[in-house]
Amino acid sequence: MSVVAAFDVDGTLTVRDCVVPFMRQVAGLNRLVSTTSRTLAPLVARRRDEVKAHFCRAVFAGRDVAVVDEVALAFAGKVARSWIRQDTLARLRWHHESGHQVVLVSASLRPYLTHLADKLEVTHLLCTDLAVEDGMYTGELDGANCRGAEKVSRLQAWAVAQGYADDWSWLAHAYGDSPGDHAMFARAGTAHDVSRGEIERSC
Predict the structure, then answer these.
(1) Among 53, 96, 125, 137, which has the highest number of CB atoms less than 10 A from its own CB?
(2) pTM value?
(3) Do residues 156 and 171 lie in contact, with contact meaning Cβ atoms separated by under 8 Å?
(4) Cβ atoms < 10 Å from Cβ of 100
(5) pLDDT digits over 16-74, tens only?
(6) Is-contact 151 171, C-beta < 8 A?
(7) pLDDT for 122-165, tens place per residue?
């Protein structure tokens, strides 16, 4: 069975957070500023899931999926051109060249991650989804925010669908940069905390 390498995206494969800049591209700065002013309490309390759900309602509710996809495609191109970490990109390519399965496991949003995964030639993507009805975003999340324990749940469900063993022996490497990746680190043969500095091209 193939070796699996799981990569977080924001701060791991990229040099910065991408969620807020993408929301700004979709809705504009004024919408984000007004939404922030109504979200101070959960921001101060660091209730990340609640904050993300609130911003997604404000930014995406009632927006046409096809229109957002055009923005997402352009945004993913910008990320690929200017915001990719070259050290972790080299590691991702090394895993590809070694015949390993690469999976992106991210709390970022599917609209632009789908296009970024294509540009990185990654076929397996687990991330935060937005609910859709009749071709329009409802503003709600479709499932849980993909961070922390949810990353582990998504990886486990993916592994079952792929026919992997139930003992996590397949998860040889996990890459991340924040506490939201620690649960994934705990299941990996080798955890790579890229917040500590640049990493070598190969393991």
Answers:
(1) 137
(2) 0.92
(3) no
(4) 16
(5) 999 999 999 998 877 766 665 555 555 545 577 888 888 899 899 999 999 999 999 99
(6) no
(7) 999 999 999 999 999 999 999 999 999 999 999 999 999 999 98
CATH code for residues 4-196: 3.40.50.1000
Residues 6+ apart with CB under 8 A from 35: 54, 55, 58, 59
Token pair belonging to 188 = 């990996």
Cα-to-chain-centroid distance, residue 16 = 12
- Nearest to 5, CA basis, from 119, 146, 100, 137: 100
CA distance 93 to 138: 36
Residue corresponding to tokens 């503003």: 139
Which residue, chain included where needed, has tokens 């993507």? 125
